[in-house]
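User: Structure please.
Assistant: Input sequence and predicted structure:
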Amino acid sequence: MEIIERVKSIILKPKEEWVIIEAENAPHSKVFFGHLLPMALIPAIAKFILFWWHWRKTVKAAIDAIESALSSLGNYGVDETCCMHRIMLH
């Protein structure tokens, strides 16, 4: 959980925290992979989750619309195989 405390400190009081990090005399790779990379991944992961959430709802809405249209056709005596046969012929 050290990373969470470090990230909070970098966000809330960056000047003081970067002085502490510099005093630790850690190699650049540790600072990059231990501090900067996790913070850079936060917005990327959030965007991915948001994109996935909206995409899932859009696909569900499209499937519901197709099912509704096919159901309506079924109510008028037209079945899916008839429609697909006509589509494939043209």
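The radius of gyration is 27 Å.
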